[in-house]
Write a structure and sequence with these properties.
Length: 137
């Protein structure tokens, strides 16, 4: 099972000066509609208490007496978004115009910037004389 859906009613949304936010309390639904009766068969009781900071709109989102779905999802089954690498850490490809062993060549060399690209070019083509280069893509 990867996901469970529960249905809760907001029973309190009380502002707290002490914590600069709201204490929001929920209770599992048990009556009021056929859907609620169905939910109460599987979750006949349940409580949830959250502190919600005033710094977010969520503090005003929850209304006493209103019903909400609560989806509980196993975090291991959710594909995590991949962090975007900062531009200076991305490996780029460079097309060179160079002279190597008395011949004109146009190799493609990778690097995280000009300095690393030149270093990699020297590793692959010792003594290379780079005339010009352009970043690809």
């Amino acid at each position: 099972m990867k996901k469970i859906r529960c249905k809760f009613e907001c029973v309190q949304n009380k502002h707290s000066e002490e914590y600069s936010g709201s204490v929001v309390e929920f209770s599992a639904v048990v009556e009021g509609s056929e859907e609620n009766k169905s939910f109460s068969e599987y979750t006949p009781s349940g409580e949830l208490t959250m502190f919600v900071s005033d710094k977010t709109e969520a503090a005003k989102f929850f209304e006493k007496g209103k019903e909400y779905y609560l989806d509980i999802i196993d975090v291991e089954t959710v594909e995590k978004p991949k962090k975007e690498q900062p531009e200076h850490l991305k490996v780029k490809e460079y097309k060179l115009r160079a002279v190597y062993a008395s011949k004109s060549i146009t190799p493609v060399v990778k690097g995280r910037g000009e300095k690393e690209m030149r270093k990699n070019a020297q590793k692959e083509y010792p003594g290379i004389n780079i005339i010009s280069f352009e970043q690809l893509g």
